[in-house]
Amino acid sequence: AGLGEFRIRDLNDEINKLLREKGHWEFRIKELGGPDYARIGPKMLDHEGKEVPGNRGYKYFGAAKDLPGVRELFEKEPLPPPRKTRAELMKAIDAEYYGYRDEDDGILEPLEQEHERKVIAEAVEKWKMEREARLARGEEDEEEEVNIYAVNDDESDEEGGKEKEGEEGQQKFIAHVPVPSQQEIEEALVRRKKMELLQKYASETLMAQSEEAKTLLGL
User: Fold this and answer.
1) What is the DSSP secondary structure assignment for residue 45, as one 8-state letter?
2) Using one digit for the tens of pLDDT, what is the confidence trace for 63-81?
3) Residue 24 within any structural domain of the chain
4) Distances (CA, A) of 79 to 2, 82, 119
5) Structural domain that includes position 25
6) Is the pTM of the predicted complex or chain greater than 0.70?
7) Does residue 201 lie in a domain region?
8) Helices 204-217/182-201 angle, 10° precision
9) Residues in Cβ contact with 93 at an 8 Å cutoff, skipping those fewer than 6 apart
């Protein structure tokens, strides 16, 4: 290694030149009917017992393997990390992935409440300012209580039950029928409950007597 880069390259080129000449002689021996030394000959090993590395037939010996640009030729690229399958990716997905547990940390919810109170306060303050400005100009307050159940007096009884077009294109139905009062409804429920109890616990004789009493009383 202390010979220097250029000297090492020259020596390595000289060795490869002798190896090519040796290969030509081995090929010629095979042509003349001799053994195939390229196939049966021993492998070329370095001092560590490893096969001499090479690239396209050119071998690198000793310190030549550590020359700039040579080391990179024999460095193996790291294998890419294995890609996870769709099933493996879905194993890590839970409710927290979709944001359903954002409030569990106790931080987000108070921040949202504080922001909500701030927005409401700003909206109320803006409404008060606009209302005071309208009153200062002498304009009437446009916010009047609206009775959604009110029916116009000019609606005749002949149109009762017919569909009417509202301001927003919605259909309204008005049926003029008598509506029982709360007291009448309670009395009807009491009578019904009495009949159910009589049917459940009274005998046939009591039922007949009850019906007879109703007839006499004109009920």
Assistant:
1) B
2) 888 788 777 776 777 778 8
3) yes
4) 35, 8, 55
5) 5-74
6) no
7) yes
8) 140
9) none
